[in-house]
């Protein structure tokens, strides 16, 4: 591996940046739910999650809280696991591609596959963090 790439990968700033980018989809969604609370609660109601306001609060706390835990390297196993479970649950609730057809089914299966890839990224980070702390004595 080129020395420049090694230096970047070993840099503390790069580690923090990677965690921010890994969680970007979650904390930005959580902030959106916070800043447009009424509309987000209405979407929860539309998905049959009632009361929508309670699901919206729980979701934004999970998304922002777990993201911060990962960014700050605190409770990584819990935060990555919670976001993975949350993400897999969104597929049957918000993206049931098997119940749709045509362009709508294609869009939902694409989103579902993206969700599965994000879950993979969370799993890789959890394994990386475990390996890093196991062998660093942290």
In short:
It contains 6 helices and no strands. It has 138 residues and is mainly α. The mean pLDDT is 96.
Rg on CA atoms, Å: 17 Å
Separation of the first and last Cα atoms: 26 Å
The average pLDDT score comes to 96
The biggest sheet amounts to: none
Question: Low-confidence parts lasting 5 or more residues at pLDDT below 50?
Answer: none
Portion of residues in helices?
over 70%
Assembly of the depicted chains: single chain
How many DSSP H or I helices? 6
Number of strands: 0
Structural class assignment:
mainly alpha
- How do the helices and strands follow one another from N- to C-terminus? HHHHHH
Strand percentage: under 5%
What form results from the Cα inertia axes? Answer: globular
Which features characterize this protein?
mainly alpha; about 140 residues; globular; 6 helices
Folded structure, characterized:
The chain starts with a helix and ends with a helix. It is globular. It is built from six helices and no strands. It is mainly alpha-helical and 138 residues long. α2 packs antiparallel against α4, α3 crosses α4 and α5 packs antiparallel against α6.
